[in-house]
Design brief:
The protein is mostly helical. The chain is built from 22 helices and two strands. A two-stranded antiparallel sheet has the order 1-2. A hairpin with a 2-residue loop joins strand 1 (about 130) and strand 2. The chain is elongated.
């Protein structure tokens, strides 16, 4: 059992991703709580009951899905210690007290709001459908097949963990109907599981216990009670995979008992070797965000989230390249992923932002502004889009002034930039130059002076300010700033 659990590839995400630490702590706390509960039931020592409750409490502090152990621990006692109500209740009291204490802390900090209505954003609720340009919740009849298919996928990953991906966000799973073969197969499998539990639990104790353990530990992350933001996630299998490891161990022991020990060892060796090889290979993918996103975008190509993540990471890597041609090629490749993210999820504001960023780095400022505008249409309070659009305004203004000699257009966009970037040195400097070249020296002076509050020792800004003063025949200030500029840089004005 330990070998199967330790080598299972589905655990790679929990181990490699720092987010998975909570899953590890939940399992550790839950298993220790179970251990002390069993010892308390055997010995009756109060300190063991206290230890059981403390472990349960610390498990809950790691993550709320530790609540599954409130059911799993009595289940284990029922199967392997005692089915007396008195014993079950005794073991349950420390768990209930720990849970109550945790809930008191939770509600005192977060209030009694249990989440309210499900979010109407596809990346936070996979059970939405687009109608007339707006997302609305799927009715239960439509989302139930998706949930059932997700549970079947969890089972498949336990037995055959390939392919693996960190991303099962919309729309990795397309709409699935009740008539789907996968859904019908899942229903038949789950009905068979139910029948085994009800009618064969006496003779097939380990099998029935393992199935119930899986059901209890996957339930809170199954989307049955509430949407968890994604169809499924491999890290949610960390605790439920104990059920699979237990089943594998019992199967191995059954083969071993039939006096075919060499077959049992051979099968175990093959299984652990294959799982280990897959785990090692998969762990390499988690080397960096870049390797993770660009690998999993192939497996989860229908996911808006991973398309967006791959595009964003490719842009981040591209802008560090010194080769302009290679840099621009990689940015354009990234934008293919980002546009696919928008095709999948038309309301994905972050994808519009990132395409805007890519266009900005390509110096396609008008395109960048268009995409930032779209992001702000989706979310008028999107501060990052506001800021980046202002940068695009600024640099479009620079381009119009320096390259196209269009001072009117330059000033129009630089003033738009200034509305957001009043404390930006470059925006103030460019406005000073534009107004100065247009003959509006008073305005030029105000912008140059403000620019110098951010970079006092910039020689060219001091020089340009001196020229602006000279244009309004203020010779005293003109000489003051021109002399300061030449002191800072003797080459200025030559």
């Amino acid at each position: 059992m330990t070998l199967v659990f330790a080598s299972h590839p589905v655990h790679t995400e929990v181990v490699a991703n720092i987010k998975g630490r909570d899953e590890i702590l939940v399992l550790l706390g839950g298993i220790w709580s179970l251990y002390f509960s069993l010892r308390y039931l055997d010995s009756g020592k109060l300190k063991l009951a206290i230890l059981s409750g403390l472990c349960m409490f610390f498990s809950l502090l790691a993550k709320e899905n530790a609540l599954a152990f409130v059911a799993v621990i009595p289940l284990t006692i029922f199967f392997y210690r005692s089915n007396k109500a008195k014993d079950l209740f005794r073991s349950w009291i420390p768990l209930l007290l720990a849970t109550l204490f945790y809930l008191v802390i939770r509600f005192s900090v977060l209030g009694f709001d249990l989440g309210g209505d499900a979010p109407r954003e596809l990346m936070n609720n996979p059970f939405l459908k687009l109608r007339n340009g707006f997302y609305e919740p799927m009715p239960l009849f439509e989302k139930a097949p998706l949930i059932i298919y997700g549970l079947l996928k969890y089972v498949q990953l336990l037995f055959f963990p390939h392919p693996l991906t960190h991303d099962y966000y919309p729309k990795v799973f397309e709409m699935i109907s009740w008539s789907s073969l996968s859904v019908m197969a899942a229903i038949l499998i789950f009905l068979a599981v139910g029948m085994i539990i009800v009618f064969r639990s006496g003779k097939w104790k380990i099998v029935s216990f393992s199935m119930l353990f899986f059901v209890f530990t996957i339930f809170l992350t199954s989307n049955i009670l509430f949407p968890i933001g994604t169809h499924l996630s491999e890290r949610f299998l960390f605790t439920p995979s104990l059920a699979f490891a237990l089943l594998a161990a019992s199967g191995w022991f059954w083969i071993y008992q039939k006096k075919q020990s060499w077959i049992a060892w051979l099968l175990l060796g093959i299984l652990v070797s294959l799982y280990s090889a897959k785990s090692i290979a998969r762990s390499q993918v988690w080397k960096s965000n870049y390797t993770l996103f660009t690998t999993d975008v192939v497996t989860s190509g229908k996911s808006a989230k991973v398309q967006n993540a791959a595009g964003g990471e490719m842009i981040a890597r591209a802008i560090a390249l010194s080769d302009t041609l290679a840099r621009n090629q990689q940015i354009r490749q990234a934008m293919v992923h980002l546009k696919e993210a928008i095709r999948i999820h038309p309301g994905y504001k972050n994808a519009y932002l990132l395409i805007g960023n890519g266009s900005y780095y390509l110096q396609e400022y008008e395109h960048a502004i268009k995409f930032y505008d779209h992001a702000l249409k989706l979310d008028p309070t999107y501060q990052e889009a506001f800021h980046n659009r202002a940068l695009a305004y600024r640099d479009l203004g620079r381009y119009l002034g320096e390259t196209m000699s269009d001072l009117t257009g330059a000033i129009e966009f630089l003033e738009k930039a200034y509305a957001q970037l009043q404390d930006d040195y470059e925006t103030n400097r460019l406005l000073g130059i534009a107004y100065g070249n247009q003959g509006q020296s008073a305005k030029a002076i105000s912008y140059f002076k403000k620019a110098l509050t951010f970079k006092t020792d910039d020689a060219w800004t001091n020089y340009n300010l001196g020229l602006a003063y000279l244009a309004i025949q203020d010779s005293i200030n003109a000489h003051l700033y021109i002399d300061r500029a030449k002191t800072l840089n003797p080459q200025v004005g030559n």
